[in-house]
Structures
1.
Amino acid sequence: MTIDRAKALGAPPAVQEITWTTRDVLLYHLSLGAGADAATGPELGLTYERGLTVLPTFAMVAGTGISSGTHPDPSFELPGIEIDLRRILHAGQELRIHRPLPAAGTATLSSHVAEVWDKGKAAVIVRESTATGPDDEPLWTSRTQIWARGAGGFGGEPGPRPEWNAPGRAPDTVLDTPTSPQQALLYRLNGDLNPLHADPQFAKAAGFDRPVLHGLASYGLVAKALVRGLLDGDASRLTDLSVRFAGVLFPGETVRTSVWREDDRLLLAATCPERDDAPVLTHATARITA
């Protein structure tokens, strides 16, 4: 494993066209449990093509769904970076939505390495992507943090410490989101077909008792809980969501999202109540509009 930070940061962006349809959006929402809770009804705003709204976190799978003819390159074989893909972890995710996402559309996705931090025994690679619509206006910007074990020690800076502290009070809101036993099997149809989320033998070889839910599925579940529980179902009011992936969630377990309000900023922590509130997402923040 080798990292040339200067070469990685100086490389030109990778640019590609992506496309998605209402079917991709509907599948994404269904894979997050939309319409499965009898108490909230069919959630037609997320499950029916007429009047369909789009959860902002759909941006993380746009262009990779079953209806799409193009697929963003998920690899991390980038200029200046040679790492073993078996030794990387999705460590964190940031997303900023610049305007509501269309239920079907095309975009130009431009991605580059924005930063590489030296953590000693590991490196953190920050890959930034911006999607621009046909009108040349931005749709979203995402920053993906990848933890690369064994890739540190190249002499770089360790990076900033995350600024996040839970308030010294009880959460203002607690949102419980159950998942189904087939949740990961549905979510993987959004494009991430890693057998870790489907094959029990593969999961055991990776050190887990059974297949685990995708980290980005937990990310989407929290976004959906915020939209339904705090924003009156208006997905356009959720404009930013930043998290660290702190632990796994198994299909069939519950995501418990604790929310502290600070004006238009929300501090969040997601845990699994079935396992003594084991952390799932930490250092999490969101921004909402009125």
2.
Amino acid sequence: MRSADPARAIRETYLAATPASAAAARRAAGSLPGGDTRTMTWYAPYPLFLTHGEGTRVRDADGRWYEDMLANYGALAHGHDHPALVAAVTRQISRGTAPGGPTAAQYEHAERLRALTPSMERIRYCNSGTEATMWAVRTARAHTGRDLIVKIDGGYHGTHEWGQVSAFFTAPEDSGDAPTRPRPARGVPAATAADVAVVPYNDIRTAATTFDRIGDRVAAVIVEPVLGVGGGIPSGPGYIAALGALAHAHGALLILDECATVRLGPWQRRHGVVPDLTTHSKVIGGGLPLGAFGGRADLMAVFDPAGPDPLYHASAFGGNSLSLAAGIAALDRFGQREIAHLDLLGERLRRGLDAAARATGVHGHAVGEGGLSYFHFGDTPPRDAAATARLRRGRAELRALLHLDLLHAGYLTAPHGLLCQHVLTEPATIDDFTAAYATCLDRLRPYLADHHPELLTRASADTVRAAI
């Protein structure tokens, strides 16, 4: 029998099922603000505390297993305990993790990364995607002698200063700010915005107008080929290439932030776009922290210590042997077969989610590319971050309830809608998940009828009314 108050039932079920996570959250709050150390992984009333990972599953503190449909926000590709990755890390840790000098692991990993991303003729290592984008932009500024960066409104490139100008989470969900006005996040100096120009995603006309106005001061344009936390929105046909042409026409560089889209093959190889600089992280570390940036040999020569006036690059754990060992094992098992499998899973997932929405009479669409997907409530899929913000406005509770109900069904997802799989995930798992998604949407229909009737088709709304 359908609950008359599905929101209350979903919350009460979560509280009853997770007492150990509740206790862990209380203890963690004594040392960590909010009881967590990553903003993205917190959710009300408290997040699950995870204790184990095995294959494509994770276990919480109460001993319950969940199929992992998130892959640590896309950072994992090979599951949680792939034997080859475990063996590589075990071997390396007995030899040392960060000896403090060059190691063979650095060039061995770089050779594999160059094969995966041929535009990265020369590579430098760091520890995260945040560092990788920071250094790629510094490279562009050093090469061009210019300071200004063009970025996408809602584009997420990490948590350094300029990266937190007009990132998706720098403004309230209901912000009415224009998508071309730079918005520094709280705590970021207002002066930072003076070095950042912002343009909407998938809008080459506005980008052209911006370059016509300030192009002689632009060092680079940085862009995600699929807009990540801004909604999983793929770039339109020819858009990235056109951005690169604009940049080059004005003496600026094109930086592709492929920290997330490396799991697509990476994106630039799939679509035949050759950037000047590329950033990678996530998958390339095999489950350990690793970032990389690189590009044309003449651009990266600025880091050569034997050259004139080299750019100083320091990092105690940059290119550490442990992360590189895991990354080498991961890249050796991330070829065309694995990428094609992730593509198949992603296409199957998006078709299944669209079918789940149709079957339950809920207006919603899955978007994404390859093994990177999102689900959005609403009539029309978003084209840019501003459209994503409009689709999410006033619907935070709805997304939270869907997330909790999916946990009850045994699936770990993200409250904001991201879905990523592992190369070990089976197609049948995708089918089971989309069936569970349909069940959760159906359970939420009375809530939708009361709070978001615009998200129900007329036939679905009539069915809900008849059941009351």
3.
Amino acid sequence: MKQLTPSQLSDILTKHRKWLIKEVGGERADLSGANLSDANLVEANLSYVDLVDANLRFADLTKADLRGAILIKADLYEANLNDILRL
């Protein structure tokens, strides 16, 4: 399982935001197999992010945008999903 530092995750999500608006330097986020347990993803734009097999246990996804996200086999045990933008 990929372990990401908060700084690495922030960089990935910054590039992803650029990709969503077709800005130079953008790149679609691939967080498949990432260990994101306990991650603070409040209001994160995770639309169209690949989260296959990602560990999101106890992650805070409050108000996160998960539209179009690929969540196959993602572990969302005890994740906070309050007010998410749904698929």
